[in-house]
Every structure is written in structure tokens, then in C-alpha cells.
Amino acid sequence: MSEKNCFLCGRQESITCPFCGLVAFCGDKHLNVHRPGGYCFPFTVSSEEGRGRFLVATRDIKPDELILADNPIVQTPYTKSKAQCLQCYKKVTGKYKCRICGFPMCGAQCANGELHKIECRVFEKADFEAEIDDLEEEDDHYAAIMPIRCLYLKHNDPEMWERFTGFLGHCQEQKSFYPDLFDYHQEHSVEFLRDTCELSDEYTEDEIHQVISIMYINSVNMEMAPGYGLGTAFYPTFANLNHSCICNTKSVKLPNNQLEVRALAHIKQGEEISTQYVTADKPTRIRRPMLYKKWFFWCECIRCGDRSECGSYLGGLMCPMKRCGGTVLPDNPLARESDYSCLSCNHRLEFKQAEMILSKAEKDIRTPNNKYNLIEHMENFLYMQSKLLHPFNYIMVTVKLKLGCMYGNCPPYSAETLPRPLMERKLQVCLDVMDALDHIDPGYSKWRGKMETELSMARLIITKHTMARPPASYYEKALVEKQFIKMYQKMYGSVLFT
After folding, report:
1. What percent of the chain has pLDDT over 90?
2. Which one of 3, 18, 151, 303 has the fewest CB atoms closer than 10 angstroms to its CB?
3. Which of 117, 112, 77, 110 is nearest to 93 (CA)?
């Protein structure tokens, strides 16, 4: 894209930004996307045949630097939803219903809210009133809300409608992969809007299916507090971010539903800016089918093509040959049924053998032995599987993460009574998790926040144990006290941070 093409829509004869000089824009609306609040965002939208649109850095970006901030243009419950307020998404009691459309709401204030007015006017015009009896079951009345709120853009915000419909919905693929869901939408979304709401002259069947598909592919789950239902939102700029299993950004949703994207690492000018659609703690054999099932593409990023998954070994096994102890990895991680081989002795495992080992391990951890409590079961599992699974295998890491959180936090392993060897064990499993996931999920995340807190707690208590022992000298006493203060400060800081 030349500098005279709009950074967002590609329109020619655009105006170069007078502040940064790095991009051009076609009008005030797109200038506001590039420079809200006096700060020029360092990205431009590019495109390639077969890949669609993606974001590229217009200059070098420092770690933690803000890349973009975006607000949703559509907020809606899912098409399959239980009863919830259509304005604030809080779960409802059924005591109050909208006097116009009959949907259960929190109260009069939410019933008159701007979001709910979008569908309420449609229902009022069609003289439709919802009857929702069971508040604990999914109700098909909610299937109409998402398409109504999307189609609202067509007549009320044409510029956003153009941006929204510019994204792929993979409608035919969704119809083929999820025929039951497609039929559900046909009956409760498409036919309801066109027949019951008498909108057949305004919207075609394909148009209604398409907006639902765009939302299912490109929207983001909304963060909801306990006591609230489920919702999803479409962010028109963020939706241009493509996936990489080793991404260079982190996304943060703010309480006002604004979404911020910040750099995880140094991003060079001209480098693609990427995000992560699925959590990083899954191995390639699970992650790639998940991506295809939801977004209809087979990822071929650096991590997916690397046998060791960038040194994380989340899919690794242990070599069964005596006196080897090498790591066994898939020969071709991009092949769905790849055989495995040892990095040390080249011993080979057929795909079915490797799958059997992993499937049995997954089954074993889910079926605890009644002779053991939960922590004993997990420790016994780690011991038994240590000859079969790599220490950083995703199953082992998941178990270690749980152990790290349970030691010191649940009876009979509470912090006050936990002996020092078990507290040191807590420290060990937390460090193992950090070592494994650091390779593929740098920067702050929920799992890291948990591990940092648990590590600080373990180190603090171990230091307390050391202080309880009489010191050999004043010098040793001073060192121990200094260590205790450091551990206390670190734990206090991590608790605040998380």
C-alpha cells in the first residue's frame, strides 16, 4: 500500500498524517482511528491474496507500547443464550419484563437502554412479544438479537457496515461443518426476522446468515462478572489482527469494553502484528485442529512447523529405549498423523502408538484412585508418567500448574502446616511450569500471575522456616532477614499485580 492510500480502507488520494508522516487517511473518521487522543497508532492495514487483511508495524514498536485501542460496534448475546438482560447482560429473575417486547430485563432503566432499543423497535413494529418461561434453559428467542444488532449498522452507520461486511464469515464452511447450528439459525434467526418481523423486503436470507457468520468468526468474548450471562462483541480494527501461535502482542479488555493491544516484544518496522486466538498451553496436535474447527484455517506459523514447538516440548514424549532418555517428537508436526522419532537415538514410534500413550495419560489423570487424595493422585500420576511423557509435555505442565496452586492453599496441605520438603516441591513444580511456558507465552498472563504469586508464597514460607532455625552467626541472621524482607515485598507486589 503506497503512502497515498488510506491506511485503513486503501482509498487512493488520501492525506498523509501531518503528525507522524507514516500513514495516510481518507477522512476524519479514519484519522480518528489512527490518532485518537493525540497519539498516532503505529500500524497500517495490509492485504495479500489467500491471507486477507492483516496489520503491519509502520515503525519500530517497543515492548508494552500501545499499538491500538478499539471499541465495539456490535455487542450482543449469542444466538443460543439463556435468559439475560439485553442491555447489561445480567442474569434476570423474570420479575420485570420490557413493556414493549416482553423480554425479561433488570428493570425500567435497562429496558430503555440504547442497546436494547435496537431490537425493541423491530419487535414493536412487528407487534411481537416474547414469552420466556424457563430462565435456566437456552431460549430460541435470543437467536434474533445478534442479526438485528448487526443489520442495524446497514441503515444507521453505513461506514461501519462497510467495514463489518468486509470480513469473511466462511458461511458455506459453517453450513457444512455445523449443519444443526445452521438449521437453528435458519429457523430462529432468518425465518423469524423475515416472516415474524416482516423484514423480507429489507434483508435476504443470505445476508442474515452472513452477518451471523461474521460474528461467529470475528467477534470477541465479552468479559463478564459472576451473575452475568454471555456476550460477544465485534471490534472493527482489532478484527484485522491475524493469529500466530507465537504472537507479538497481548490484548487487554478494559471495564468500559474498550480493547487495548500492546506489544509483547520489540516489533520491527514492516513486521506483521499478530495475536493469539487460542491459549498457548496446548500442543500443535490439539491447537491446529482447534483453529481449523473455529476459524477454518490450518496454521503454519513458526511454532506449528517446529518439532519442539520453539523449545517448549509441549507435545514431547520420552524415548522408551533403555539408557537413552531422549525426547521423542513428531517428524512432521504439520501432518495430522505424523510418526514420531527420538532426537537422540532415532528410535521411531508410529502415530497410533504415540496417540495411545497420550490418550491413556489423559484418561488416567481424569480418573483418580480412591486410595489417594487429589494431590497424591496427581503426584503419583507425574511419577508414573515420567518415563513416558516429557517433563514439559502439556499434560504434565497442566498437572504441575494445579499442584503449584494447591500446595499451601487447601487442607490437609495448608501453608501453616505444610512441611518444608512439600513447600520446596511447590516451588519446583511452579518453576517447571514457568520454564515450559516461557518459550511460547512470554509477558504477563493469567497462568503467569498465578505462578508468580505461588512462587513468592513458597519462597516466603521457606525463608520463614530458615529464620526459625537458630542462626550460626549474626552475619547469617542478617542475610536471612534480608532474604525474608525481599520475599515479603515480592509476594506483596505479585498479589497486588494479580
Report:
1. 81
2. 18
3. 110
Q: What is the DSSP letter of 443?
A: S
Per-residue b or e along 443-466, where b marks 16 or more CB atoms closer than 10 Å to that residue's CB = bbbebbebbbbbbbbbbbbbbbee
Contacts of 257 (CB under 8 A, 6+ apart): 71, 72, 75, 222, 233
Across the range 170-191, mean pLDDT stands at: 97
Phi-psi region of 438 (alpha: psi -120 to 50; beta: other; left: phi over 0): alpha
- Distance between CA 113 and CA 491 in Å, rounded? 43
Q: Which helix or strand (DSSP H or E) is residue 327 part of? A: strand 327-330
pLDDT tens for residues 201-252?
A: 999 999 999 999 999 999 999 989 999 999 999 999 999 999 999 999 999 9
Lowest mean pLDDT among 290-299, 433-442, 487-496: 487-496
CA distances from 409 to 81, 251, 415 (A): 35, 30, 6
- Please give the pLDDT value at position 202: 96
Q: Is 412 exposed, middle or buried (0-12, 13-18, 19+ CB in 10 A)?
A: exposed
CB atoms < 10 A from the CB of 29, how many?
12
CA–CA separation, 396 vs 476, rounded Å?
A: 38
Per-residue pLDDT, 444: 75
Q: Quick check: helix, strand or coil at residue 164?
A: helix
pTM for this model (two decimals): 0.88
Q: Is the dihedral of CA 398, 400, 405, 410 positive or negative?
A: positive
Of 440, 403, 430, 402, which Cα lies nearest the Cα of 315?
Answer: 440
Q: How far apart are CA 382 and CA 379, in angstroms?
A: 5
Residue 192 has pLDDT above 90, yes or no: yes
- Judge whether residue 98 has pLDDT over 80: yes
DSSP string, 260-277: EEEESS-B-TTPEEEE-S
- Nearest CA to 377 out of 366, 391, 388, 389 is that of 366
Q: Which of 356, 369, 358 is nearest to 398 (CA)?
A: 358
C-alpha cell, 368:
483418580
Q: How far apart are CA 113 and CA 220, in angstroms?
A: 22
- 321, 294, 320, 315: which is closest to 303 by C-alpha? 315
Q: With beta carbons less than 8 A apart as the criterion, state whether 165 and 153 touch.
A: no
pLDDT of residue 491: 47
Look at residue 413 and give its three-state secondary structure: strand
Confidence check: pLDDT of 277 > 50: yes
Is residue 58 exposed (0-12), middle (13-18) or buried (19+ Cβ within 10 Å)?
Answer: buried
